[in-house]
Amino acid sequence: MKATVVMEHLFVRSPDGSYWTRTNFAYSFWQRYLMVFDALSVVSRVEPCDAVQPGWNRVDGPGVVIVELPAWRGLSGYLRNHGTLTRLAQAAIHDDHAVIMRISSSITEAVEPRLRRTGHPFGVEVGSDPWEVFAPGLFRHPLRPLLRRYFRRMQIRQCASAAAACYVTQEALQRRYPAAVGAFSLGVSDVELHPDAFASNPRSARSGRPFRLVMVGSLAYLVKAPDLLIDAVAAAVARGLDLTLTLVGDGRFRASLEERAQRLGVGSRISFRGSLPAGAPVRTELDAADAFVLPSRSEGLPRALLEAMARGMPCLATRVGGIPELLHDEDLIAPGDSSALCAALIALAGDPARQLRSAARNLERARAYAEDRLQEQRNRFFRAVAEATSAWQRGLVDDR
Question: Is the pTM of this model over 0.85?
Answer without folding.
Answer: yes
